Amino acid sequence: MTTHSPILVTGASGKTGSKVVAALSARGACVRAFIRREDAAPALVKLGASETVLGDLYDDESLKTALAGCRSVIHICPPMNPDETSIAKSITDYCLAAGVGRLILYSVLHPLMEDVPHHDHKMHAERYLVNSGQNYTILQPSRYMQHLVPIWNMVLETGIHAMPFSAKMKFSVADLHDLAEATAVVAIEEGHDNATYQLAGPEQLSQTDMAEILSSLTGKDIIAQAKSLEQFEADARSGGMPEARLQTMLKMNAHYDSHGLVGNPNVLRWILGREPTHFREFVTRDLLTS
């Protein structure tokens, strides 16, 4: 499938956006990558972006320029942005004005959790989009398996898989590669107009479950441990985490500590046309072969 009419990807240089750019390109799509830093352009071109557009989500004129001539837009807001709702509203309005065929909003699993700020922001963004009259698809991905990657070396060194919430709560963790592939499929294929899709991984796993899998794969004794929110906050502050992001993460982790985050994998399985990646497969592919 090829077309000269581009698909715009916002947040294209981020962890999610770059994977989506690559997945779209692999399917022959013409991809326009919206970036904030000029030095991000070469990497995205290497991933398959047909063009890059320099701009800022807070700059109306650069957004309008980026949208011009696009057949669809995949909006991926930087994670836990406190202005996410207002940014999404602006993009919705500009898509309508520009006659964009479809706006694909990359949201989150269970945005209705109003006690978690970034979930609540996405809920307001979804509501505005649905009521706007703009043709849309809303994607609601679960927590990523890739959250293990930054702490992997520490897990191996200490034998502890520590996260700032209960080791017993269940999560339907999803592989970012699967999520990017699903996003590309939805963007390119027909039949996804005015749909909201929950994208949850195929297993409901606690940190303890994950530690057992890691132990069996590595041959090391790895245990799960709940890091206290106080320790998480101290570590985050020492690392210079912005205050707004820190407060959002504290509320998110408090919710996860009580409820976890689980969903149903059937929609992701249907979109991919195969079984979604299991946690064991992810670890073997991304961590044990690197």
**Helicity level, as a percent range?**
40-55%
Radius of gyration: 19 Å
How far is the first residue's CA from the last residue's CA? Answer: 32 Å
CATH architecture of one domain: 3-Layer(aba) Sandwich
Number of helices, where a helix is a run of at least 4 consecutive DSSP H or I residues:
12
Average pLDDT figure: 95
Text of the CATH class of one domain: Alpha Beta
Query: Looking at this structure, what is the CATH superfamily of one domain?
Result: NAD(P)-binding Rossmann-like Domain
Secondary structure category: alpha/beta
The number of distinct β-strands equals: 9
Beta-strand content estimate:
5-15%
Low-confidence residue ranges: none
Structural summary, described in words:
The protein is α/β, with parallel strands linked by helices and 290 residues long. The chain has a domain at 7-143 and 175-200 and 263-277: Rossmann fold (3-Layer(aba) Sandwich). Helix content is 46%, strand content 14%. Strands 3-2-1-4-5-6-8 form a seven-stranded parallel β-sheet, sandwiched between helices. Strands 7-9 form a two-stranded parallel ribbon. Strand 4 (72-75), helix 4 and strand 5 (102-106) form a beta-alpha-beta unit. It is globular and about 55 Å long. The model has no long low-confidence stretch (mean pLDDT 95).
